[in-house]
Amino acid sequence: MIDPFGRHVSYLRVSVTDRCDFRCTYCMPEQMSFLPKKDVLTLEEIDRLCSVFVAKGVNRLRITGGEPLVRRGVMNLFRSLSRHLESGALEDLTLTTNGSQLARFAGELRQCGVRRVNISLDTLDPEKFHSVTRWGNLAQVLGGIDAAREAGLKVKINVVALRGINEDEIPTLMDWAHSRGFDMTLIETMPMGDIDGDRTENYLPLSLVRARLSENYTLEPTSERTGGPARYVRVRETGGKLGFITPLTHNFCESCNRVRLTCTGILYMCLGQDDSADLLTPLRASPDDNDVSAAIDDAIARKPKGHDFIIDRRHNRPAVARPMSLTGG
Ligand code: SAM
User: Fold this and answer.
1) Ligand 1: distance of its center to the CA of 117 in Å?
2) What tens digit of pLDDT does each residue of 225-277 get?
3) Is residue 284 within 8 Å of residue 295, measured between CB atoms?
């Protein structure tokens, strides 16, 4: 699949549920209203949609949410999608998770062909962790991370950089991750969905974080990529890799290879734009996949050039109304 700007679309992210067992302050309000269960695709429908994308050339699939591992039966989806790994059509089946359920599922994920996992962790301080996630328990997540490592999954730690919350802890987090052999990626907070507070207060540009890190570490640029939006450096002192996802200070749309499917069957061609395509109607209209396939072609032909996220005092409304948990981070 090639979009109007010549970009190959080969990466699908699928939000399998908008529900989550955490309430991260920058992601959603504490009293979040979730989609009625009847509006959510069945796991069989998600499998079918993913399989159409794979047949059309998608070779990387990331399962996300919400928290993907709280969706009942989600292991059946991983198990069934693993057939595309076996056939060679899919190169990578992976997930983004908050880690809370990994102690239970890490071994099974590995058996399903998952080789690497992104785990979100914004702080190593138990109280801060509780205040950022509202409902999360750090010890449980650290146990999940250990379980992933023991199961032989390659772990990447995702950290949202938050002014006044974890900005002083970033070197500690990086030393911790690299000493365990984990890559770490920093993410700028994006203006998506309403939250209880004001995002501008916690927005921390990664250009600043990078400059501060450079005072004590040698950051050696590398051309290594993992197929996502992060740009990496190798940190000479730790030997580990550090990624920067900078949708605000430097957008990376020129190399975007991704589209995102919600758990209601809506395809978003850009994380930061509202245009979308309904795949649910063609999916349910016919047991053969021709209509869905045509709807995907139409959607790819409309993939926008990029997003234009801005966060400052004059732009403190979300750029898009839907939260990250719906579109899938
Ligand atoms: N529940 C899973 C998790 O915590 O990784 C997967 C979904 S979560 C929406 C995916 C990632 O998006 C997490 O790393 C989270 O920190 C990040 N995220 C959520 N809202 C965000 C926002 N407004 N800006 C930047 N990152 C955000």
Assistant:
1) 14
2) 877 889 999 999 999 999 999 988 877 888 899 999 999 999 999 988 889 99
3) no
